[in-house]
Amino acid sequence: MTTYRPLNADAQPSPLVQNANDPIVCATFYHFVEVENPEELQPVWKQFMMDHDVTGTILVTPEGINSTISGEREGVDAVLAMIRSDERFKEMAHKESFTTERPFKKAKVKLKRETIPMNYKADPKKIVGTYVSPQDWNDLISDPDVITIDTRNDYELHLGTFKGAVNPKTKTFKELPQWVAENMDTKKHKKVAMFCTGGIRCEKSTSFMLDQGFEEVYHLDGGILKYLEDVPEEKSMWEGECYVFDDRVAVGHGLKPSLDAVICKKCGHSLIAADIRRASFKDPDCVCPQCGASAAEALRE
Fold first, then answer.
1. Active-site residue, selected from the candidate residues 196, 242, 264, 288
2. How many whole angstroms separate alpha carbon 18 and alpha carbon 138?
C-alpha cells in the first residue's frame, strides 16, 4: 500500500476541471505549528484579507491555524502567499474548489485556544497516523481487519459517508475520546482507519489513537474532499454527499455543489432531498426530523 505525507506548499493543488471557469476560489488549509503571537497576527491578517477582497475565517491558535477563505484568484493567492511568507507557515498546503458565488460574507480572523477542540491534548506535531492517498483508500477500508471510523459529527454523516464506516454519533468532536474509550479495544482493533472532511480532525484523532496504544492507525490524506476530487464516481466507495461548513451546504463527486441539501434554519441540521420532500410547504404537518420545526420555520429564506 502506498502512503505519503501531504503535499507541501510548493506543490500546486489540482484544478477541478468542471468548475475551473467559475470566478470564486475557495481555499481550505490548516497547519500545526507553535504560534507564540496569535494576537499580533489577527489585525494584520484581517486587514490584508479586506484589502484583497477575500472573505472567510482564519482561526489562529497557539497550536496552529485552520481556515477556509474565498475570493477571486488574485486575492486568494495574495493571502496564501502572505501567510506562507511567515517562516512558520511556509510548508502549509491548501486545497481548492470553485463556485459562482462567495460562500462567506465577511473577512474574519479569530483567536482560539485550539484549531479544533477535542478534550485531549493530542499533538500532531509529534505523532500522527499514517497518511493514505485517495487512490489507495478503497483497498484499505475494504480490508476486513480494518475498522473505519468517521470522525465527523452525526449531523454531517446524515448527508453521506463511506461504505461500511462506523458512525460514533457524536454531537461534537469533543465527544470522540469518550466514544473511543467505551467502544474501542487496542487488542481487538488492530487496524484503524479514520477520515473527516478535510483532514484536520484526523490529525488530532489519529494522534490521540496512537497515544492510547493503537498500533496501526491510518487516515485519509486530504480528507473526504480530496477523495471526491480525485476518485471517479464509478470507482468510489463514498455514498451520498459531503457536508461543508459554508453556504454550499454539501458537495458531491468532483466537488460539485449539492442541488438538494439545505440547512434547517432553526436547528442547523442538514436536510437531504427526502427530508425536504417530507417538509413540503404544501403539508403543514411535515417537520424537520431533528428539531420538529415546521416547514415554514425549517426552510425559510
1. 196
2. 24
